[in-house]
TrEMBL record:
It is found in: Endoplasmic reticulum membrane. Belongs to the TMEM97/sigma-2 receptor family. Residues 25-182 form the EXPERA domain. This is EXPERA domain-containing protein. The chain crosses the membrane at residues 27-49, 88-107, 119-142, 168-187. Its main location: endoplasmic reticulum. It comes from Gymnopilus dilepis. One of its GO terms (cellular component) is endoplasmic reticulum membrane.
Length: 206
């Protein structure tokens, strides 16, 4: 038997009417989506843009980031360190970021601001996917050789301790937030399912 609209509204209505500032995790996710969308469009997806379409300031920003951090992934696909054939997996992740993650940033930003629960299943998928791909990037950074006179002489892609810490400070938050989101949204959906099952059972006995 279907749950009555009146009982459904009791389950869903109160949370959606809370202001965003009263929902700290949602506020974190909204801020994260906004920041990530900008970083995605301005930096990450430059690999796919035609050169004539990239304004000078955007190209300069990417060059500054690569020069400062020696990011072996972003710099690698950009050709800053030679060929990028070995980074097919990272290019695949960038394509996934373009066709899946970027739209989710917009949808999630709008839905969470309204307190909509219909976005929860999609955010579970996003969080699990993004945390997994970012973890692979973190592992690559950790395994990138330490810069030494030998790596410099042989032209091996390497990073100093300071550059590695800088890269980790950039990548780790983009792993933690989606991971927390996936767990949080899974718990929220589980709670809603339990409530719906309980109401449905109660309705059967009427």
């Amino acid at each position: 038997m279907l749950i009555s609209n009146e009982k459904q509204s009791k389950v869903y209505k109160s949370y959606s009417h809370l202001p965003l500032t009263a929902r700290p995790l949602d506020l974190l996710y909204v801020a994260f989506f906004g920041i990530h969308l900008i970083a995605t469009l301005v930096v990450d997806l430059q690999y796919f843009y035609p050169a004539w379409l990239v304004p000078g300031w955007m190209r300069a920003l990417l060059d500054f980031y690569i020069g400062m951090s020696k990011d072996p992934l972003v710099g690698g696909v950009d050709g800053a360190f030679g060929g990028s054939e070995h980074l097919v997996w990272f290019k695949t992740f960038l394509a996934l970021e373009a066709v899946f993650q970027a739209p989710v940033f917009v949808l999630g930003f709008r839905a969470l601001r309204r307190g909509s629960k219909s976005i929860y299943p999609l955010l579970i998928l996003y969080g699990a996917s993004s945390a997994t791909t970012t973890l692979a990037c973190i592992t690559t950074i950790l395994q990138t050789p330490q810069t030494t006179p030998e790596t410099l002489a042989q032209g091996i892609v390497s990073v100093t301790t300071q550059e590695r810490l800088m890269l980790l400070s950039s990548y780790v938050p983009f792993f933690l937030v989606p991971f927390i989101m996936a767990v949080d949204m899974t718990l929220r959906v589980s709670k809603l399912v339990r409530k719906a099952i309980k109401l449905e059972d109660e309705e059967k006995w009427k």
